[in-house]
């Protein structure tokens, strides 16, 4: 069961991750961790750990074959085209009265509430989430992390000003539709 879950997660990770360097690093790191665990179990020389050691051998084997596939992918890049969606060209722009710091406030709210995950269920990193908004609304932050810090540096009364405006807008629309 645990082995099947591991293999399933490894397969999902390899399918989703286009960054070959990250794939190699993640697999090598995992191999090192599993080998360390195996060495600790060998030192204990406990007969009850035999099943765990057999599982470790299976895990190392699947990691080795996965690494070989990645190595083949590196050696033959033409056989594995990178899935890049250049066709996404939204016709969406920020209104003139919305500042980029307002959008960053929204991004911070989503990120720090852990509300956004990637396809395999892991939290997205901050810059990735910010890039989604940039691409989706046709703008660029000059410096994502500086803009994030600008949100945190605002006075307490302005810290969540845009989010408060969104709450008010939703309440007004709900009232207009007769729900409140």
List keywords for this structure.
mainly alpha, 65% helix, 7 helices, RteC protein, 180 residues, elongated
Care to describe what's here?
- The protein is mostly helical and 180 residues long.
- The protein has two domains: 2-79; 100-176, no CATH class.
- Helix content is 65%, strand content 0%.
- It contains seven helices and no strands.
- The protein has helices at residues 2-16, 20-44, 50-75, 100-112, 126-137, 144-153, 161-176.
- Helix 4 crosses helix 5 and helix 4 (100-112) packs across helix 6 (144-153).
- The mean pLDDT is 85.
- This is RteC protein.
- It comes from Bacteroides thetaiotaomicron.
Low-confidence segments, given as residue ranges, are none
Structural class: mainly alpha
Radius of gyration of CA atoms, rounded to a whole number: 24 Å
What does the overall shape look like? Answer: elongated
Q: State the helix count.
A: 7
Whole-number count of domains? 2
User: Percent of residues in beta strands?
Assistant: under 5%
Mean pLDDT across all residues, rounded? 85
Major sheet attributes: none
Q: Kindly, what is the distance between the CA atoms of the first and last residues, rounded to a whole number of angstroms?
A: 49 Å
The total beta strand count reads 0
Share of helical residues? 55-70%
| Element pattern in H and E | HHHHHHH
